[in-house]
UniProtKB/TrEMBL annotation:
Its EC number is 2.7.1.82. InterPro entries: Kinase-like_dom_sf (IPR011009). Belongs to the choline/ethanolamine kinase family. Keywords: Kinase, Transferase. Pathway: Phospholipid metabolism; phosphatidylethanolamine biosynthesis; phosphatidylethanolamine from ethanolamine: step 1/3. It comes from the Eukaryota. Signal peptide: none annotated. CDD domains: ETNK_euk. This is ethanolamine kinase. It is an enzyme of class 2 (transferase). GO terms for molecular function: ethanolamine kinase activity. It comes from Zea mays.
Length: 351
């Protein structure tokens, strides 16, 4: 049940200060008596704690907002400055909850009345099409500042931190010393060199589009992307591949990675949301090659992320095991993904 670790896990105290924050940041709440407030935990994990703060109205109905509090040591895996810079623009573009206010270690946002998707939901053709269309819109949001892709900077940053760890627990240390960081660095460099040749379009990417970060209001048919902690300028193929890897679900069954037909269904709706049937075969092939080569980068990213979490996370979870799982999947898929890209590039040179 690996993927739960990214969405929930650690228990946090319920902060009384949330009432004060909401009184200060939510319009019309400043004069409401504290006795009319209720607070409940929606989810909690290493990267944040999500609270639902509600106020009982005079008519007996509740009015609710969410308070997102950042967890401990998150600066090791998340660039909070980058996230906070992007949130107002993503909110203004209609993504996620509406931003109501920001404070030193979190944000206050509107409450989303929708259900969280399951991994199985994501591969349903109708829902997959909506995710693809929404992702295209997300990729078109303009976030001020540098438009340089951050994927490789983040991976090399993770690699440097992961290679310098030492575990107090003897069993953990024994497993850790079996890892060859020289091998991983060589793999990353070779993969980067190959992907650079593909010249994949750079977009503002979500970078963590697992089922837990997708919500659906079934009555309205409204899909929501949430949690932009890992968002950055990156490559469109990486963002899509990372999403496809999440089809593996909580049990990390990577055999559930979508086949070519399912991918092409997604690509049609991504490339031409209004008229999917009119997408050119050549455009789908390009995106197919991009996605299924960046698939490898996604495995390395989360493998290295897991090593850092193994050292700093308070969650009782086998992050070292998760590293070996993701890096093992990288090695399993490496040759076929490299061959796909190399064959495509060879065809371009000879065509």
């Amino acid at each position: 049940m690996f993927e739960h670790s990214r969405a929930r896990g650690a228990s946090y105290p319920c902060p009384r200060t949330s009432r004060g924050l909401c009184k200060e940041l939510v319009k019309g709440w400043s004069s409401i008596d504290s006795s009319r407030f209720s607070i409940e935990t929606v989810s909690g994990g290493i990267t944040n704690l999500l609270l639902k703060v509600s106020v009982k109205g005079n008519n007996g109905n509740d009015s609710s907002v969410t308070v997102r509090l950042y967890g401990p040591n998150t600066d090791l895996v998340i660039d909070r400055k980058r996230e906070l810079q992007a949130i107002p623009y993503l909110s203004a573009a209609g993504f996620g909850a509406r931003l109501l206010g920001m404070f030193e270690n979190g944000v206050v946002q509107s409450f989303i009345y929708a259900r969280t998707l399951s991994p199985a939901d994501m591969k349903e053709p109708k829902i997959a099409a909506e995710i693809a269309k929404e992702l295209r819109k997300f990729h078109q949001v303009d976030i001020p500042g540098s438009k340089e892709p951050q994927l490789w900077n983040d991976i090399f940053k993770f690699l440097k931190k992961a290679a310098a760890l030492k575990f107090e627990d003897n069993e953990q240390q024994k497993r850790y010393v079996k890892i060859s960081f020289t091998e991983i660095q060589d793999e990353v460099k070779e993969l980067k060199d190959l992907l650079d040749i593909l010249h994949a379009p750079v977009v503002y990417a979500h970078n963590d589009l697992l089922s837990g970060n997708l919500m659906l209001n079934d009555l309205e048919g409204k899909l929501y992307f949430i949690d932009f902690e890992y968002g950055s300028y990156s490559y469109r193929g990486y963002d899509i591949a990372n999403h496809f890897n999440e089809y593996a679900g909580f049990d990390c069954d990577f055999n559930l990675y979508p086949d070519k037909d399912a991918q092409y269904h997604f690509f049609r709706n991504y490339l031409h949301p209004d008229r999917p049937s009119e997408v050119q075969a050549q455009d789908m092939e390009v995106l197919y090659v991009e996605t299924n080569t960046f698939r490898l980068a996604s495995h390395i990213y989360w493998a290295l992320w897991a090593l850092i979490q193994a050292k700093v996370s308070p969650i009782d979870f086998d992050y070292l095991g998760y590293f070996f799982l993701r890096y093992g999947e990288y090695k399993k898929q490496r040759d076929s993904c490299f061959a796909l890209a190399q064959s495509f590039l060879s065809g371009l040179r000879n065509g």
